[in-house]
Target: Cytidine deaminase
Amino acid sequence: MSEIIAEDAKIITLARAARARTGALEGAAVRDTMGRTYSATTVDLPSLKLSALRLAVAVAAASGAEGLEAAALVTTTGTAAEIDVAAVHDLGGQAPILVAAPDGTLRATL
Model:
């Protein structure tokens, strides 16, 4: 994989930290067009189930973000679900999605 820029490494770190803090299956973070970041983890409640990436996009949208520059997903599955990619593109156009392993190793850019 090619080297990533510092701002992208930051959102991977935020996603890893959120995941580690809660013990969730996935952690995610997004950076909006103003440079603000939002992180989230998987929510798995009896009446509410959200992926980390969709929740990070929802938090950004609810905070007034008008677009996304990039998104990061830390997961053991190796990729993002189509619905998660769609959520990022709904708010971020063609914002890249960095998919990383729990140790922070970049696996793919979608």
Remarks:
- The longest helix spans residues 6-22.
- The chain has a mean pLDDT of 96.
